[in-house]
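Worked example
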Amino acid sequence: MRYDLVVIGGGPGGLAAAIEARNNGVESILVIERDKELGGILQQCIHNGFGLHEFKEELTGPEYAERFIKKLQENNIEYKLDTMVLEVTPEKIVHAINTVDGYMMIEAKSIILAMGCRERTRGAISIPGERPAGVFTAGTAQRFINMEGYMVG
């Protein structure tokens, strides 16, 4: 497989990068996402407040993500879900794996790394003491409640 651009990460940054690349004339683009859906952290942010600058209306995180996912599809930008990137070589070869395609070696002219970030740990934000079982970061609680349907606490 060969692409002009491979974007690793299908969250807000990766989706925006792929769409902007297409708008600037990049022909073949592939977005690789390790989760089972595009949108990244936006999918668990069910509160509103997104979209004011871009769409001039208040949207929830999933609604905002859906607008960009539709733009991706309208622009015929390829994407692979549930795909783990194993290695990126200096020669711009992306080694990835999923249950549909198996092991893949994807050649790219350019690569954008848009894998997002992680919440800071208890130690990184100086919460003293031992971390008792059942205490979650805000992001973990959001994911359990808003996406997985579990009530925490």
Summary: The CA atoms of residues 28 and 69 lie 17 Å apart. The longest strand covers residues 102-113. Strands lie at 2-8, 29-32, 48-50, 59-60, 78-80, 84-88, 93-98, 102-113. DSSP finds four helices and eight strands in the chain.
